[in-house]
Design a protein that fits this description.
Number of helices: 4
Strand order of the largest sheet: 1-7-3-4
Distance between the termini: 39 Å
Strand content: 25-35%
Number of domains: 2
Amino acid sequence: MSLGTKALVTWDDAAAFIKPADSDIPVVEAIVDGVSDYFNRRTRRTLRSAIYTAIYLDGNGQRDFWLPNAPVTLLSSVALGSPTPVALVLTTDYYADLENGRMMKVSGDWTLGYHNLLLTYTAGWTEVLMPRELRLACLEQSALQYHRWLSKSWGDQSRSMGGSSISISDEHLIKGLDKVLDYYLRIRS
């Protein structure tokens, strides 16, 4: 019973919420991981805490620079320039709004260029600090996917039942979850 490193919920939470049969555990693990991956793509960020070591980003030529992931829990190093980056000092060269993942130059703008910012940082929410609405959204969507899998209705457009026909929506998200994900949508500079 193991979920991937990007899963938005714990296995214990998923098992308690979804209540899968023992033989379905691998299916539920795959569903929770898939829903978590979809949420990451949909919000344009990695929601679960991860360490980004020595990554190169493109300078945007503006005063504000938005990191690809937030909230930032540790901004270890920031260096500017290529091919030999020069370390920058917090409050001397730039300010950091860690909650929003934004760095602001003290004077001037970030140099416009390809791979001219070198950073090491940690961003995203830990298991304990993951926002409740994201955890619940992941559990609800995973439960829906699991029940669709159980009923063998993945991809069905309609199904006859007892002499009548019902339509089954092929939408990706439970109604209303798009608004939750939109709230966490990462806007990048």
